[in-house]
Amino acid sequence: MLLIDTNIFLEVLLSRARTEESKELLVSLRDGKRNGMITDFTVHSIIAIMERFGKLSELKTFLSSLLAYKGLFVYSTTIADEIRSAEFALKRKLDMDDAIQYSSALSVKASAIVSFDKHFDGLDVPRLEPPL
Hints:
By secondary structure, the chain is an alpha/beta fold. Helix content is 53%, strand content 12%. The chain has helices spanning 6-13, 19-30, 40-52, 56-66, 79-92, 96-107; strands spanning 2-4, 36-39, 72-75, 112-114, 127-128.
């Protein structure tokens, strides 16, 4: 099980430099060729970012597309996860969004965090980048 970080989706949604390799991973998750998870925090972050970039018209399409993913589930963090995240933020010098992802990866025993964010390097869950 892979934890897919927010920036993988944003590469595609905002047509950034690593769109194609990110899209390849997302298609494999959509088709059920790979298994992964995202946090509810990721979904909410994407909503806020898409609004900030004036892309609300694409937001409904994105949210609806999540229902079609055969190999992806959304993990809802608990208050206990949030407390542990705050502890990781302090101990590991992570910002809260990275700490929530890391804590969630540990909770679901993710084999890796797929992200372009190097803040995940050196943690107990390895970081991978697409293509995988």
